[in-house]
Amino acid sequence: MTEVPAETSADPRAVAMMVAFVMFLSILEATVIATALPDMARDFGVAPSGMGIGITAYLLVSTAFLPLSSWAAQRLGPRRVLTGSVLGFGLASLLCALSTGLAFFVAARALQALCSSLMTPVGNLVLLRVTPKHRLVEMLAISTTPALIAPVIGPPLGGLLTETLGWQSIFLINLPLTLIGALLTRKLIPRIAPRPAPFDPLGFALVAIALALLIYGFDRLGAHPGAALLPAAMIACGSAAALLAFRYLRARPDGLVPLTALRHTTFRSIAFGAGMLMRIPHMGQALVLPLYFQLAFGMSPGLAGLLLLANNLGDLALKPVVGRVIRASGFRMALSAGTAMMMASLAAIAAFTAQMSPWLMAAAMLLVGMARSVPFTGMVSLAFADVAQEELPGAIVLNSIGNALSAAIGISLGALFLNLRIFTPDSAEGPYRLALVALALIGMGAVPLFARLPAEAGARITARPLREGQAPA
């Protein structure tokens, strides 16, 4: 009885900002480590290439434990889980900073990833429960902004901290942030009463094994395309495990990850259909573009970072008007036309030359970022437009799984295209241009799929229904 007033009286904007904060922490920690790896390898007495396991462990654990988020939120209450996971993230960060060897660091990094896998999904669960449907686009635009900022500032921030204060500082900086985050969670997140939720060990094992095999298999395929047999076997085994998990969970509506949200065309399309095809090139370009600017054009890391910053600023610049654009055009038009423009602009980056002015490149990257603002915000909003309140826990996990798989496939394909030996050594730009155009063509496959959405798709959140507007406070 107490959870209804708590949910209806909560300020969605405050909750959205809290979700933005924890998402920023999680994404920043996944990217800030890259520039510190050589110094860490020296202190640990290992080869720099051996430090890659720190990144892989974070990705694997944070993905494999996603199914626990909805169960823990229901069993213990979202506010308690979010507070505990934020504090645990800070503790794990301290352990990372205190590491003197690779094994201890990987264990601490895995604990950090476990806490990360709970933070954002549980925060999103609360946000979706307290936000009226007609404000969903606005609130999700706020909560997803860190996904644009953190990947850009992570590497340069890591480099600056490593050079000035040592690599330990990239983890120690999380301590005050997580303390602030825990206090804000207690203040801003409403208390939602726990519900009985039995744990499903077999369902968890099947999902975790499937995700771990798929994520790691795609990672190895992109890194070593010349030795594709083992990665292909891992992907095949992961696909088989995923099929077993699907059949098992489909027969158990009350299992660890309920699949009832898959009955909605809009949710299926965004989580595992057209939305996945659109996210793949976006994640792939995150790997390709920094290398393109630095290795093909000889830019400094700072200048390359500024171009990426311009790209994300273009996206951010349109966020205030995205809701109005989607309301005017409808989700079907916004997603299909917006995705076509997004992929065309991604392919156009392949036409950059070393002789182009950096200012002209920055202006072009600004426009490229603008091209993706409407379709990305629309996709995030439409995913949950038709999902009922009782379906949200499972929907949050399934959507997070779709995002994780998109990231793994996109980064793997980006690396795969770059590693194809079809260009002469003196063709510095060739592999990057191939990767950008190929990724854009893959993303174009989402356009006809979005165009097949019902004309009324997402009408509950593009319209301002009187029934919701007149609901008693």
Description:
With 473 residues, the chain is an all-alpha fold. The protein folds into two domains: 409 residues, Up-down Bundle (Growth Hormone, Chain: A); 48 residues. It has 23 helices and no strands. The two termini are 16 Å apart.
In short:
Helix content is 76%, strand content 0%.
Produce the secondary structure layout.
Blueprint: H1 3-9, H2 12-32, H3 37-44, H4 52-64, H5 68-76, H6 78-97, H7 102-130, H8 136-143, H9 146-165, H10 169-172, H11 174-188, H12 201-223, H13 229-250, H14 265-272, H15 274-296, H16 301-329, H17 331-348, H18 358-382, H19 392-419, H20 430-444, H21 446-451, H22 459-462, H23 466-469
Characteristic terms for this protein:
single chain; 473 residues; mainly alpha; Growth Hormone, Chain: A; 2 domains; 0% strand; disordered N terminus; disordered C terminus
The CATH topology annotation of the largest domain reads as Growth Hormone, Chain: A
What is the total tally of β strands?
Answer: 0
Number of helices, counting only DSSP H or I runs of 4 residues or more: 23
Which structural class do you get from the secondary structure elements?
Answer: mainly alpha
Which CATH first-tier class of the largest domain would you pick?
Answer: Mainly Alpha
Gap between N and C termini: 16 Å
CATH architecture annotation name of the largest domain: Up-down Bundle
Biggest sheet layout? none
